[in-house]
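Researcher: Structure for this, please.
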Amino acid sequence: RLTGVLDGELYESVAPLQHAEAAQDSLIKNVADTIEKLAGDNSDDPELSLQLAQQYAKLARLRQAQVPCDQACRLRAVVDVDKGIALLGHRPSAQSRDSDAQRTRAELMELKRSMARP
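Model: Predicted structure, token format:
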């Protein structure tokens, strides 16, 4: 369910509604809280670490897509990216997941670079 929300399914479905920004903000906050809880409960599970890192990347993209995305919004997106990178940085990964972890790390690093551009 979390992936569906982050992929924008529910997020995009509220866009046509009046006061959609408030609903989208609420969805983003609830998703962020859920990811934080899962990351805090993560007990060195490499698969979960990878999935959470991917969710942090999606969350950062959703934050950046908010209108308007002010400096605080951009800062929260950078923090999300950093959390995803940290999950991949100090969690062991199984050999079969190394390429997925490397791709996700590269995606997060590129996302961070793109956020630094004016």
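Researcher: Any notable elements?
Model: The chain has a mean pLDDT of 81. The helical segments are 2-6, 9-13, 20-41, 46-65, 71-89, 98-116.
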